[in-house]
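Board notes (copied after class):
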Amino acid sequence: MSQVTLDKSTDAPADAGGSGRFWAPRRIPAGIVAVLVLAGAGLLLYDIVAVRAHRPAMRWRRTLARQLAERPLDNTWVLAGAALAVALGLWLLALALTPGHRSLLPMRRPHPDVRAGLKRDAAAQVLRDRAMDVSGVRSVRVRMRRRKAAVRAVSHFRELDDVRADLDTTLTEAIHGLGLTHAPRLALRVTRAARKG
C-alpha cells in the first residue's frame, strides 16, 4: 500500500516551494446531484409539454401547486422543506469550496511539475518509530493533524525531563525530515509508566 501520493501537474509556477492542498474530485455527490437534477428537469419538462399539448397536468404537480397555494408560509411542513433545502445547499457549497483529502499532508515540491502528499497515518508511524528509538520510552501514541502532531509518550526509566528533551529533539528533526510544506507544531506529553502492584 503506497503511503505517498504523486501527481503530475503542469499548472504550477516554476518557483513553487510547496504543494497546495489536494482537492477531492467528489464524483459521488456530483453524480447524485446531476442525476437528481436531470430526472427532475426531465419530468417537469415532460409535464409542461403535455400541458402545452392540451393534456391535463400530472397529479403530483396539481397537488403540489394546490398545497403551495393553500399552506401559509409559517406552516411546519413549509418551514421543514425550506430548512432541508437550505441544509442541502450549504452541504453542496461546502463540498464545492473545501479541498477534501484531509488524510493527505502536502509535501514540498522538489520539481514544479511534481506534487506529493504524505498520508497522516504514515507520518504518524514515522514519528512513532523515531520516538520509540529514544532511550527510556516504553510506548508512544501519535495523532497527526494538519497543524499539530500530538505525541503522548510513556517512560519507564530515566528522568522525565531527560526523556522529554531527547524526544523533543528527535521528533522535531523527524517532523522536518518528513518534507511537509507546513511542518506541524509538536505537542509533546511524557508521563511515567504506572507501577505494577
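Comment from the instructor: The CA atoms of residues 47 and 122 lie 55 Å apart. Strands lie at 4-8, 104-106, 114-119, 137-144, 148-155, 185-192.
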